[in-house]
């Protein structure tokens, strides 16, 4: 317990230092390291999270790490070329609904990370004028094949932002594209908004029921 | 006579193609170009889902419940070690000597120091397990994947990987380890069950994430196979289909910071 607190303190100090040192822009690899380490520490300090309770994790993420994710870009990437035909209001709604679904998925994926699992960061190099980069990490789990987790990060006005996460080569964003395109072509953009919002409502109710 | 047979065969083929096309059209004219058999595939997917719900999953859940985790890891490791042999062979077939050294090295270490493969000693020492099979080898040799194809019981595949899978089974050294047919088939059964049980945690993520489980699993399968064939560096996202280049980054600003 004490050890955990010390670890947390170290982390906070580390983050403060990192913020001071990189007052202008946090490099993408450091950003990914911060996000993943913070999540790892947070998930492991609470036994209820280990049992799969994602509500707390989602609340925590909203306050801490989620502003490092670019949900606008994620949504446009998932929708694909039909994104252009959406009105600004439709775009706003799409982003809001897809964001809810994604956060839930991220939380489901990361809530089970156990202490004996650890993350390894692959060597990272980039050119100074790169606009998008991929930061590669590995989740090492005893007795299993390590899981490749890659973060696509993009330079924005507001620093580097994560816009895609792939697990074992499967993008958690573009994997939706076929399903979304199909829905748009049968029921239009509003159909997709409705589909996502129904899905979210259904998941919320299930969460309350259990 | 032979001509007649040929004609009949041709007619039969044409009929089959027609059925496949029609059922494909029935689902959607916009389906993934790599999934021309979507009609059949969705049907088989439903069958598999039903079979899983009533039979396979309950058994896997029971197995998961009665097998203590350490014991289950031993089972996983045992089959994983046998699997590593063919992973190494496939590495060699693909001309990846370094990877083969890692994967066959794992077999040597785990079979000896890991008590016949029950413990992943090599993995703990940093010789991580990798993934490879004949489907990947064929892909690296330039064989195209062909249409997506849902196999009975086993689920997502494509034409190339179905042949790959058959080659995997034929080449697996499991029959050398277990010579008695009963033991051999039991082992395949346990292996299948163990794999299914290991997938239980991932299942919840997919169930909650997917808006259409069929296409979610299909696209995940395709992306994952491509990733294996390109060894973790598949050709980038299809830029053509990207909605707007650099939606969020204002190019002007980015330029000014670089100057």
Q: What sort of overall outline of chain B do the alpha carbons produce when their principal axes are compared?
A: globular
The helical percent of chain B reads 55-70%
Strand count, sense and barrel status of the largest sheet of chain A are: 5 strands, antiparallel
Number of helical regions of chain B: 12
What does the model show?
The complex is a heterodimer of chains A (210) and B (259). Chain A is an alpha+beta fold and 210 residues long. Chain A is 56% helix and 16% strand. Chain A has helices at residues 2-21, 28-44, 47-50, 54-63, 71-79, 88-111, 177-209; strands spanning 118-121, 132-140, 147-156, 159-167, 170-171. Chain A has a five-stranded antiparallel beta sheet. In chain A, a hairpin with a 2-residue loop joins β3 and β4 (159-167). Chain A is globular. Chain B is mainly alpha-helical and 259 residues long. Chain B is built from twelve helices and two strands; from the N terminus they run ααααααββαααααα. Chain B has helices spanning 2-27, 38-66, 69-93, 97-112, 121-124, 134-140, 159-171, 174-177, 181-198, 200-209, 213-229, 251-258, and strands at residues 148-151, 155-158. In chain B, a hairpin with a 3-residue loop joins β1 (148-151) and β2. In chain B, α3 packs antiparallel against α4 (97-112). Chains A and B meet through α5, α6, β3, β4 and β5 of A and α3, α10, α11 and α12 of B.
């Amino acid at each position: 317990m004490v050890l955990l607190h010390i670890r947390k303190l170290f982390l906070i100090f580390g983050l403060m230092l990192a913020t001071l040192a990189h007052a202008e822009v946090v490099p993408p690899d450091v950003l990914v390291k911060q996000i993943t380490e913070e999540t790892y520490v947070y998930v492991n300090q609470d036994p209820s999270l280990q049992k799969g309770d994602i509500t707390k994790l989602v609340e925590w993420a909203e306050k801490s790490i989620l502003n490092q994710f670019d949900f606008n870009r994620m949504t446009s990437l998932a929708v694909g070329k039909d994104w252009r035909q959406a009105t600004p209001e439709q775009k706003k709604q799409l982003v809001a609904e897809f964001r809810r679904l994604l956060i839930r998925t991220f939380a489901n994926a990361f809530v089970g990370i156990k202490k004996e699992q650890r993350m390894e960061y692959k060597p990272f190099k980039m050119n100074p004028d790169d606009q998008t980069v991929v930061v590669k990490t590995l989740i090492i789990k005893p007795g299993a094949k390590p899981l490749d987790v890659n973060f696509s990060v993009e330079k924005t006005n507001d620093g580097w932002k994560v816009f895609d996460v792939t697990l074992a080569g499967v993008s958690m964003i573009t994997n939706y594209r076929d399903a979304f395109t199909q829905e748009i072509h049968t029921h239009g953009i509003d159909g997709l908004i409705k589909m996502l919002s129904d899905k979210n409502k259904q998941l919320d109710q299930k969460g309350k029921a259990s | 006579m032979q001509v007649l047979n040929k004609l009949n065969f041709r007619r039969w083929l044409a009929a089959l193609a027609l059925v496949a096309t029609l059922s494909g059209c029935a689902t959607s004219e916009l389906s993934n170009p790599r999934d021309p058999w979507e009609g059949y595939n969705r049907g088989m997917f439903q069958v598999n889902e039903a079979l899983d719900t009533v039979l396979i999953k309950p058994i896997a859940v029971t197995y998961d419940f009665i097998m203590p985790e350490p014991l289950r890891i031993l089972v996983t490791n045992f089959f994983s070690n046998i699997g590593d042999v063919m992973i190494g062979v496939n590495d060699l077939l693909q001309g990846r000597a370094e990877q083969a050294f890692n994967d066959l090295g794992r077999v040597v270490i785990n079979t000896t120091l890991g008590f016949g493969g029950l413990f992943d000693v090599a993995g703990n020492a940093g010789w991580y397990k990798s993934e490879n099979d004949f489907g990947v080898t064929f892909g690296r040799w330039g064989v195209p994947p062909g249409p997506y194809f849902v196999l009975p019981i086993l689920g997502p595949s494509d034409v190339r990987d179905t042949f790959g899978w058959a080659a995997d089974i034929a080449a697996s050294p499991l029959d050398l380890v277990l010579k008695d047919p009963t033991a051999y088939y039991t082992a395949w059964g346990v292996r299948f069950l163990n794999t299914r049980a290991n997938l239980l945690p991932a299942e919840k993520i997919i169930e909650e994430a997917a808006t259409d489980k069929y296409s979610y699993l299909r696209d995940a399968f395709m992306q994952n196979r491509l990733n294996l064939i390109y060894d973790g560096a598949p050709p980038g996202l299809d830029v053509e289909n990207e909605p707007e280049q650099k939606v969020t980054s204002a190019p002007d600003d980015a330029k000014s910071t670089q100057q």
